[in-house]
User: Fold this.
Amino acid sequence: MPIFCSANFESANETSYHDLRYIRLNNTPNHEALHGKLSAITGAEAALVAASGMAAISTTLLTVLKSGDHLLAQDSLYGGTHSLLTEDFKDFGISVTFVDLHDPQSWSKALRPETNGFYVETMTNPTVKVGRLDLVPEFCSQHGLTSMIDNTFASPVNFRPIDHGFDLSLHSATKYLNGHSDIVAGAIAGSREWIEKITHRLNHLGGTLDPHACFLLQRGLKTLSLRVERQNANALCLARYLRDHDSIEKVNYPGLEDHRDYAIANRLFSGFGGVLSFETVGGSEAADTVLKALCLPVNAPSLGGVETLVTKPSCSSHSGVPPEERRRIGVTDSLIRVAVGIEDSEELVADFAQALSKL
Ligand SMILES: *Cc1c(COP(=O)(O)O)cnc(C)c1O
Assistant:
């Protein structure tokens, strides 16, 4: 697909403003090619790209919800989404109740007459928990709610929410969909009717993906299944190695049979994803020693690229969360998150082995 840099296109007697071709209206040839590809791989009627994951999430929520509405949302959401719901939505007159996705009985108790949507994530960051996703679509249709899921961590290779009855599936395409850590982008998939409404709102809010980024994302998608299959295999291999290591206190990965969410992850997913986290013995300093000694992984936030990245969530994504709350949700000072890449699994394990031998 060539890159169509044109901001505007010669008019061809279009009858509606939204049919004129213009980059902000998300309808250049680059957008259309990408929308078709994304609807195919997500199994949805239609799809839409946006300027970032947060543009996809905010525009979707602001299409589904209006002033006076109430939203049910899973607790422990991605930080940006959590801040949007708790800080910005107050100003828009939209209220939110956070619920435990492992406790379906609590969901009905949180319902109000003005509840209009339920927002969840496939896996939580950084402890990779998987709640009762299987019960969300049915619960939503019983109570007239729109179901939305941030499927970034799984990617459509491992989980396809639309097939399971979710109304809207959202992605930070910055991560696995693009896979090369060189753009920021977002994606939304769902019914033609929903995507049309969200497109109109995105046209007005202006969070459009640039044609050059569309091109890069389409290039990234060509290798999505190869990359994610390799990342699934690498993460499982590394998780098993770490579980059996004497210097490791705990490993969080839903592909380990002793993980509390293994049964549901195994039932719903075709792979367990590329993100895992673990706690070293010896606390925060020991974790720093390991991070310093690692040669292959890069110490950086984000995930989904071809290189393995490591972070200490207590000092990065969760540094704003009070220490007591951090411990409650399993983000201890010694927790290291690994977002595995596509390196050779033996080299990856060997590197963790030499780093852990420094303890
Ligand atoms: C990164 C991320 C986002 C935000 O995406 P951006 O592309 O950075 O705007 C949202 N949800 C999850 C789960 C993420 O990992």
Residues 52-54, 78, 80, 121, 150, 152-153, 172, 174-175, 184, 186 surround pyridoxal-5'-phosphate (CB under 6 Å). The chain has 13 helices and twelve strands.
